[in-house]
Amino acid sequence: MIKQSLFALSFLLLFVFHCSTTLAQPAPAPAPPGPTNVTKILEKAGQYTILIRLLKSTKVGDQLNQQLNDSNNGITFFAPTDNAFSNLKAGTLNGLTDEQKVELIQFHILPTFLSISNFQTVSNPVRTQAGDSRPGEFPLNVTTSGNQVNVTSGLVNTTVGGTVYSDNQLAVYQVDSVLLPQDIFAPKPPAPAPAPSQPKAKTKKKTADSPSGDATVDASGAVSLTRHGILMSIGVAVIAGLSL
Ligand SMILES: *[C@@H]1O[C@H](CO)[C@@H](O)[C@H](O)[C@H]1NC(C)=O
Ligand SMILES: *[C@@H]1O[C@H](CO)[C@@H](O)[C@H](O)[C@H]1NC(C)=O
Ligand SMILES: *[C@@H]1O[C@H](CO)[C@@H](O)[C@H](O)[C@H]1NC(C)=O
Ligand SMILES: *[C@@H]1O[C@H](CO)[C@@H](O)[C@H](O)[C@H]1NC(C)=O
Ligand SMILES: *[C@@H]1O[C@H](CO)[C@@H](O)[C@H](O)[C@H]1NC(C)=O
Question: Is residue 157 within 6 Å of ligand 2 at its C-beta?
């Protein structure tokens, strides 16, 4: 009798278990399980094969996923379509160094989550992952009118095409042009940039008329010489004193 009811009970349990697993199966998880994967989102959306390739080759895709997992500020990503890349002048991508490719992709990424309505209140230039937003570097400006959002790098103007994905942490927007940053694609103004002018400063040193960094180097050299001299004379004095 007990044996029988145990047997029945186990059948019932098996049946319930079977029902619950088969019932659970058809309901798809509302969000992709695990950490957000930008590549996966773009793959699902289609028409982003070139961007996906660049995200992989530059490793920016991994950085993005890591950042999404680690930070609370979120990410806004302007995703250029394959069409946008194929509209570039031939050889544009191939002409870039690996570092420039990284910067190009990072220029499309803002280190904060922005909904379409959030764009109305951002102040220009907005900061991108590529860094410096001064003119000639990586400035990106946003203008809005209602739900229309325009983005400009100064070299490229485009309108945000639509929302590919948004979850209050990550926003991916379609753009139909690649945003070309000034730092890479605009000829540099002949400003007195400190870094490239250094070799010139060295040649100027010989004319000895520039109160540049070289002067301080010479001065410190002189200081160490005099110190050396003082030490020498102290040494001589000590030796002289000892020999007396
Ligand atoms: C993200 O998704 C892509 C494509 O589905 C896959 O190749 C990659 O391994 C995933 N990355 C992680 C960290 O899960
Ligand atoms: C995501 O962050 C959590 C806690 O901050 C950490 O335990 C986990 O390893 C991270 N996952 C990845 C894929 O980096
Ligand atoms: C955005 O760009 C389009 C096309 O150039 C233009 O017609 C529109 O006025 C711009 N809107 C804003 C808010 O700048
Ligand atoms: C971006 O906006 C700033 C501030 O309004 C402005 O000074 C700058 O010229 C703009 N740059 C571009 C590329 O539109
Ligand atoms: C972008 O838009 C601005 C303002 O509407 C315009 O002055 C500029 O010529 C445009 N630039 C390009 C490259 O289309």
Answer: no
Identity of residue 184: I
Domains of the chain (ranges; CATH) run 27-183 (2.30.180.10)
Q: Which of 18, 23, 43 is nearest to 32 (CA)?
A: 43
Question: Phi and psi dihedrals of 62, rounded to 5?
Answer: -65, -45
Give the pLDDT of residue 5. 53
Residue 7 token pair: 């047997």
Tell me the whole-structure pTM to 2 decimals.
0.71
Q: Identify the pLDDT of residue 36.
A: 87
Tokens describing residue 167: 């979850």
Whole-number Å distance, alpha carbon 44 to ligand 3 midpoint, is: 29
Burial per residue of 216-238, b for 16 or more beta-carbon CB atoms within 10 angstroms, e otherwise: eeeeeeeeeeeeeeeeeeeeeee
Q: Distance, CA 157 to ligand 5 centroid (Å)?
A: 6
> Is 106 in contact with 54 (CB distance < 8 Å)?
no
Distance CA 139, CA 160 (A): 17
Tell me the CA–centroid distance for residue 149 and ligand 4, in Å: 15
Round to whole Å and give the CA distance between 89 and 110: 25
What is the pLDDT at residue 131? 93
240 Rama sector, left if φ>0, alpha if ψ -120 to 50, beta otherwise = alpha
- Report the nearest atom of ligand 1 relative to the CA of 34: 14
